[in-house]
Write the structure tokens for this entry.
Amino acid sequence: MVRTQIYLTDQQRFELSLLSKSKGKKQSELIREAIDQLIEQASRERREVVLRNTAGIWKNRLDIPDFEVTRSGWDRG
């Protein structure tokens, strides 16, 4: 782990102290958990944006074969 210094407001420090005592965890552990949640949320949002931006990008392409025609050649019948 890498040691990092942060500044908290008095209210943040007070609430973090209460959480720490009630959950039986160190304040640093709670901060790491909160950062992990923030990173996961941001990662999820980035994936959703990429998926939205790429949805349908091939729909008007004429340079790729028709999947239905290609697939029908594979059918056993």
DSSP finds three helices and no strands in the chain. The radius of gyration is 25 Å. Residues 26-55 form one domain.
